[in-house]
Every structure is written in structure tokens, then in C-alpha cells.
Please model this.
Amino acid sequence: MESVAEGLWGLADVQESRGEIGKAVKCLEAICQCSTSFLPIIDIKTRLRIATLLLNHTHNVNQAKFHLERAQLLLKSIPSCFDLKCRAYTLLSQCYHLVGAIPQQKNILNKALDLATHGDDELSATLWSCNFTSQLANALIIEGEYHNAISALDHGYASATHICSPELQMFFISSTLHVHLMQWEDVSVVASAVNRCSQVWESIEPDKVNSHIPHL
Model:
């Protein structure tokens, strides 16, 4: 049955390359709807692929959410598959964000952050943690929880510092500045955030700085 799944995955690739997203989804859904059960890992990968296609090319968020929630149930019975679990979390977070279910999004992201602390590959786990942290901060901002958002961004900044990524540091510190500008409680706090942004920006290598500046 694995060869059947691989054949349908390949056919879905062809349809996607032609811009036939609906046909690509149908190829993949044929695996999920097959009367003969595939291995759980095949079902999981297929559902993640379907959700990705739906989120990237359609407005069918609810169908994407259905496949992701089903994939999550299957993943609970598998002790490994760290990256697949993280992908499911980040895509499901995106679904909750799109439908305005912010409390559910925050809940799923907190679970994702807990998972990220158990990754075997430190770099991969930290990058996933940064991903989840940025989404959580955004969700907190939407609900007006500015102080909690800043705490989340500070955590992300610390993670970026740990893996020596000035680009990620810049992302988190500039996001923190944005939150301070939104709530504007203290001019000195805003000025401090601006100074931190300047310090991080100056620490980025010149060739990388140029790559981040748009050509006008």
C-alpha cells in the first residue's frame, strides 16, 4: 500500500505544478478515504500536505483544520515524529488565527512550546520555539495582552541569542519595539527599545544587512 500512496503523492505533485490545486487535493484525499488503511505515518503526512495546499491556495480553512486535527490525534500515538508534530501545531495555529479563534490558538501554541523543549536537535527545536513564540506574541497582541506579548518576545529574543542568530534577534527586538509603540506607556522604555534595535542591527554582518534592505 505504501507504493500506492507514493504514486498518489507523485500525482498530486504533478497537479500542483500545473496549478490544479483541487485535483491535487483529491489525489491526496483518496489516500485518507481509502477503505484499506495505510500506515498512520502515511495518513499523517498526507493530511499535513492537504492542509498546506488548502491554506496556501484556497479559503477552505475549516477543511484544513479538520485534516490537521485528525493528524494530531494520530500523532499522539507516535512517540517520535518531532518535526511532523511541530508542523501540525504551526498549521493548526494558523487555522485558528484565520477563523478568529484566538484562545484556541494560544492553547495550541503553549502545547507546541512545551513540545519544543523536548526536541533532540537543539537548533531545530529552538527554531521551532521561535516560530511558536512569534505566533503566540501576535495572538496576545490581538487580545490586548501587551505585557504578556512583550514577555513572549523577550523569550524569543533569548532563544535567538542562544543560537547566535542576529537576524532572529532583530525580528524579536523590532517586534518588541512595535508593541511598545502600540501601548506607549513610557517614552524611556520606547527609547531603550530603539537603542536595542540599533545595537542588534549594527551587529549584523554588512553583506547580510544589504540583503535585508530593499532595492528602490
Notes: Residues 98-205 form a domain with the Serine Threonine Protein Phosphatase 5, Tetratricopeptide repeat fold (CATH 1.25.40.10).
